[in-house]
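ok so for the tutorial part 2 we go from a plain amino acid sequence to predicted structure tokens. step 1 is just haveing the sequence, like this:
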Amino acid sequence: MDTPDHLFYTKEHEWANFKGNDVLIGITDYAQNQLGDVIFVELPEVGTSFKSGEVFGEIEAVKTVSELYAPISGTVLSINEKLEDSPEKVNLSPYNEGWLIKISPEIPKEKESLLTNISY
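step 2 — the prediction. this is what the tokens look like for a chain of 120 residues:
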């Protein structure tokens, strides 16, 4: 299982990459492997706000549909529009091309409650 050490993780298998004032969010390699072939990703609209732990979308795979949970509170700045036509990017590159949303964090200190790659 691939867990890059520069990312932070949740028990629900999302990851967060803190880059300056923005945070990229996706699902882990473990999660995409458990889901199987991803066939559809439902993401929020730009400008949507949510709190840590709230559902921000769904990911549909051949095996199942799974909810996506926000690792931290924030407002959506952008979504990975490439997933609309190529949802398999989540399987092929969960930490790079398969990212889901970019947010502006509301409470940056929430980062401290996330897991490191070792604790994940």
